[in-house]
Design goal:
- By secondary structure, the chain is of the alpha+beta class.
- The chain has 18 helices and 17 strands.
- Helix 12 packs across helix 14.
- The longest helix has about 50 residues.
- The N and C termini lie far apart (about 120 Å).
- Keywords: Decarboxylase, Lyase, Pyridoxal phosphate.
- Pfam families: Pyridoxal_deC.
- Belongs to the group II decarboxylase family.
């Protein structure tokens, strides 16, 4: 491709990009593909011979676009905004055309100096103290563009670790650095970004994750208490990462309160991560959220989130650049130059050596929109978020779960986490809008963020209509499922009753013999005794209160009564088919003589149970007559 064809193809590409952004609404927000879809569409090896440009662009539309999640889509409401604008695209295009690698001032003076100037511009607009600005007289600080907020957190933790080791080495010169490293402890809130935990892993230091308050804000008393406990355990606090605008709910740690408390720990590095919210501080009415920044040792924000600048562009400022660079300096001869002592070399400010000309796109954006234009853009997004919050609050099925200060609203259906998971899953599967979840105060919530550069009120209303439609469908289905569950539970309960009835039926004559229930054997309300021929006293009593005495069936009582030592207890007998209990007690004669005879079903003085399907069962003596005056048979049974 020569310059002539590049002009033609470049024009076509600009046209393609414009058409793509203008027709995004016609595309599904998220792709409907499975992992590995693309490897089945592309060859396993690179082509040996050149292919026509037209064929490449055909494959972009037919193979690449079906697998793209469209972050610039007006229906995309997940995460935070992904900055994008035509001035930024053109700035990146120019940077790519220049193609310099600005690792030092000598490698590309304009690349280095523009970055320093633009970072001072943005720092002033945000409202950072003068000690963060490189070109302020007497300042030791300055700003640098990093790849992402994760890299900002990492390099500041590395600098804090180097500072702590140096300080401890002065106190304990004969202790190995590895041992000192094992004592270092960093701190952050549970709401902090996961990059803090990853940075601690890379730095080989301990990290204590602290519980925030009910507003998801880290407070000074929680932090100080943890630090004092760790000091008592022989650990050494060295780094605290706070957040202004957490990822989960856009909550704000109280950095003013924390900064004041950390004055008792002068060797602890205080970092402030404001990746999303920091951009909004260019608005005068939002600068109050920055209160306490004077205490910070470093601060970062991402213009590639909310300042219309394409990724990658994460800005970091430090109070003292020497403390940062001393932790990262590697200075081989081939990288040295004659102005090393008087110029900034950004290769010492981060992990990578090679650096793109990223300040160009930020410079283009700041000049094209001006601070006023960027303020209006941010205020518009906040207004859209406030509109969505009002829609949620009007519907009593929903609740708002965060304090909406900027462009993020956390909401949920009133009810269980499970129903909210169903709601979000159904919405995202439809491809109409896209959102992501978060956990706020241990509850599952749905995050809604206005992200598109040209988002409008109609986009918010459309999103709310989609949400309420799916919510109504899910709630209706939940109610139907509840009814089904109740019916199933009743069926199960009925089956259990039937099984229980069967068990009782085979063991209790009152169940399977309706005549017994119908006869309704009268209760004996007063205790009476009936002497037998051998002096055994049979006591019949009505049960007074449920569970007032234990009971046993009469065959077991027979075994007890026929033991060699006589009855052990004054044990009442219950006949399960009678509504009475019978108490067996030894007679005075048997007690005096030590006799052991006792009633027996077949003995001379036994008690024989007579059952009748027509009448209530009665106790009859073997000697004598039955209630129907029928003589007993010789074998001891009743006919």
């Amino acid at each position: 491709m020569d310059s002539r064809e590049f002009r033609r193809r470049g024009t076509e590409m600009v046209e393609y990009i414009c058409n793509y952004l203008e027709t995004l609404e016609q595309r599904r927000v998220t792709p409907s593909v499975e992992p590995g879809y693309l490897r089945h569409l592309l060859p396993g090896e690179a082509p040996e011979d050149p292919e026509p440009w037209e064929k490449i662009m055909e494959d972009v539309e037919s193979k690449i676009m079906p697998g793209v999640t469209h972050w610039q889509h007006p229906r995309f409401h997940a995460y935070f905004p992904s900055g994008n604008s035509f001035p930024s695209i053109l700035g990146d295009m120019l940077s790519d055309g220049i193609g310099c690698i600005g690792f030092s001032w000598a490698a590309s003076p304009a690349c280095t100096e523009l970055e320093t100037i633009v970072l001072d511009w943005l720092g002033k607009a945000i409202g950072l103290p003068d000690h963060f600005l490189a070109l302020k007289p007497g300042s030791k600080g300055g700003g640098v563009i990093q790849t992402s907020a994760s890299e900002c957190v990492l390099v500041t933790m590395l600098a804090a670790r180097a500072q702590a080791i140096k300080y401890l080495k002065q106190q304990h010169p004969f202790v190995e650095e590895g041992h000192l490293l094992s004592k270092l402890m960093a701190y952050c809130s549970k709401e902090a970004h996961s990059c803090v935990e990853k940075a601690a892993m890379i730095c080989f230091v301990k990290l204590r994750i602290l519980e925030p308050d009910e507003n998801c804000s880290l407070r000074a008393d929680t932090l100080v208490k943890a630090m004092e406990e760790d000091e008592q355990q022989g650990l050494i606090p060295f780094f605290v990462s706070t957040t202004l605008g957490t990822t989960g709910s856009c909550a704000f740690d109280d950095i003013n309160e924390i900064g004041e408390a950390l004055q008792r720990f002068p060797s602890v590095w205080l970092h402030v991560d404001a990746a999303y919210a920091g951009n909004s501080f260019i608005c005068p009415e939002l600068k109050y959220l920055l209160k306490g920044i004077d205490y910070a040792d470093s601060f970062n924000t991402n213009p590639n989130k909310w300042l219309l600048t394409n990724f990658d562009c994460s800005t970091l400022w430090v109070r003292d650049r020497i403390r940062l660079t001393s932790a990262l300096v590697v200075d081989p001869l081939y990288l040295k130059h004659g102005y090393s002592d008087s110029a900034i070399d950004y290769r010492h400010w981060g992990v990578p050596l090679s650096r793109r000309f990223r300040s160009l796109k930020l410079w283009f954006v700041l000049r094209s929109y001006g601070i006023t234009g960027l303020q209006n853009y941010i205020r518009h997004h906040i207004d859209l978020a406030k509109r969505f919050e009002r829609l949620v609050l009007k519907d009593n099925r929903f609740e708002v779960c965060n304090d909406v200060k900027l462009g993020l609203v956390c909401f949920r259906l009133k009810g269980s986490d499970r129903i909210n998971e169903k709601l979000l899953s159904s919405i995202n599967a439809s491809g109409k809008i896209h959102m992501v979840p978060a956990s706020v105060n241990e509850r599952y919530v749905i995050r809604f963020c206005a992200t598109a550069q040209n988002a409008m009120v109609e986009d918010i209303d459309f999103a709310w209509d989609v949400i309420t439609d799916f919510a109504a469908e899910i709630l209706e289905k939940e109610q139907a499922d509840e009814v089904t569950e109740i019916v199933d539970r009743r069926k199960t309960h009925t089956l259990a009753q039937k099984r229980s009835f069967f068990v009782r039926m085979v063991s209790d004559p009152k169940i399977y013999n309706p005549a017994i229930n119908k006869a309704q054997t009268p209760r004996i309300s007063t205790e009476g005794t009936s002497p037998s021929t051998d002096g055994t006293v049979v006591t019949v009593q009505s049960p007074k209160t449920p569970g007032s005495a234990s009971w046993i069936s009469w065959p077991l009582a027979f075994l007890f009564a026929n033991s060699d030592d006589g009855p052990k207890n004054d044990m009442p007998l219950r006949f399960r088919h009678l509504d009475t209990m019978v108490r067996l007690s030894a007679s005075r004669r048997n007690s005096a003589t030590g006799g052991g005879s006792s009633p027996s079903p077949e003995g001379e003085n036994g008690i024989v149970l007579a059952k009748s399907p027509k009448r209530s069962p009665l106790m009859v003596r073997r000697r004598g007559t039955s209630p129907s005056n029928q003589p007993s048979t010789g074998n001891g049974s009743t006919k």
